[in-house]
Amino acid sequence: MNNLTHINVKVINPLPFQPAGLSGNADAILHEILALLEAFISTGQNGAIDLHSLPLTAADLELLRATLGDGEVSARIHVIGNTEVRETTYPGVWWLTYYSDEGNVVADLLEVTTVPEILKAPAEDVREGLVRLGDLLGATG
Amino acid sequence: MNEPDTLGAGLAHSGVSRRSFLKFCTVMASLMALPPGAAQAMAAALSQAKRQSVIWLSFQECTGCVESLTRSFDPTLEQMIFEMISLDYQETLQAAAGEAAESARDEAMKSSYGKYLLIVDGSIPTKDGGVYSTVAGVSNHDRLIDAARGAAAIVAVGTCSSYGGIPHANPNPTGAVSVSDIIKDKPIMNVPGCPPIPSVIAGTLAYFVTYGKLPELDHIGRPKVFYADTIHDRCYRRPFYDQGKFAKTFDDEGARNGWCLYELGCKGPTTYNACATIKWNGGVSYPIESGHGCLGCSEPNFWDKGSFYRPLSTPLADNAHIIAAGTLGGIAAGAVAAGLSRKHQTHIGEEK
Ligand code: SF4
Ligand code: SF4
Known about the structure:
The complex is a heterodimer. By secondary structure, chain A is an alpha+beta fold. Chain A contains three helices and five strands; from the N terminus they run αβαββββα. Chain A has helices spanning 25-43, 58-68, 123-140; strands spanning 47-50, 74-78, 82-87, 93-99, 105-112. In chain A, strands 1-5-4-3-2 form a five-stranded antiparallel beta sheet, covered by helices on one side. Chain B is an alpha/beta fold. Chain B has helices at 7-13, 18-31, 38-48, 64-70, 81-84, 98-111, 140-149, 159-163, 179-182, 198-211, 224-227, 238-242, 253-256, 275-278, 320-327, 330-340; strands spanning 52-58, 85-90, 116-121, 124-125, 134-135, 138-139, 151-157, 176-177, 188-191. In chain B, helix 4 crosses helix 10. The relative contact order of chain B is 0.11. Classes of the chains: A alpha+beta, B alpha/beta. Chains A and B meet through helix 1, strand 1, strand 5 and helix 3 of A and helix 2, helix 15 and helix 16 of B. One iron/sulfur cluster is lined by residues 193, 231, 271, 273, 275, 286-287, 294-298 of chain B.
């Protein structure tokens, strides 16, 4: 058991937001994405929005998800728990959710970029891979 | 020990991929509300950095603070901090003992003089010549003064080393004091909590290793990146507080409906800590989610402020703006909220 939802208690969402649980923050974030996309296209500047410390209700997140949707790319990265990388229906707008080993969300970001950094193979790791493969072929061939 | 000396090489050496390292930096940057792009800068700076020499002294303490950092779930992101430091002395974790351990510490203090980070957990007893806690015949007081001399900075981990904590509680039989009561000429950061949240310990250490200095501190020495808001500012029960809906006993209708615990003695309104956002046990929950008020464990003298179950009488800190951002509605409020998440940001771009 690593999640409160496994405990059988009556939970009432205490946030008295109107209407239908929206705080207005999802809307603000969507407008910020618009601005980040404009900046990215005109200057090449990458952008990101950290969802972690924003007061978002479940309805806010739902609105964000529904509006941004799922695009063509999704990937999972297995390092100390999962990381989910999903492109939204707006190319260049990515939603990255980082999970701990126990499956809790430890960071949640929207990124505006061609390819999120964590997807790219790091140059040093590529070099080390070359050495390993070379060793393997040297040893067997 | 013959370990690779840049952090990047060290990480590769111990099989930590660069992606997991970037993930660590992303999570830490997010917890500290640094600008989202900071993670990459942090990862780049760290991989070139040398492992930070750390000497960790445990004084009058219960080892809970070390447990908090090391015995959380395994493997954790927080534990990656151990890849970034060279822990040259830590009585609980080191394999060496006796003379060998003592001389390893003296050796590290000499070779990294002026550069090592000194971490202290536990308070320092001063009564009767400090006899109430000694290691190898040396009192905690004298050991602290000796080790502080060559330290670049000191981090007091836990409420005991930060403010005296439980040993300092009435009637304080050992004359326990905090690190900053004794050391006056070094930068000291307090990371209080009984114990502190593991990510908070790891995050502040990662900050020091990245930037070579302590983050911005509040008026009682706590890093603002983690301690700028009260539990009450970020409490999910806050809307009930604002509506005047309070649980009166632990089993009444209000308690069952998850109403505010203020009248049951919650110290959330006067307690600066990150429990409500970072939470405990790998992000599972924090005490108020389990139906118990905050004890105020990251504040000075928390043990002597009357009953944990008596309602606070002090006027509340003026932090109404935070929840206001959530209740105004509309884009303008959203902009306020988005701004809020950046309010703790330091100028990270300039700190490289
Ligand atoms: S008084 Fe305690 S339970 Fe109530 S809103 Fe504040 S922190 Fe939460
Ligand atoms: S909720 Fe309060 S008492 Fe509990 S750990 Fe956090 S600061 Fe300490």
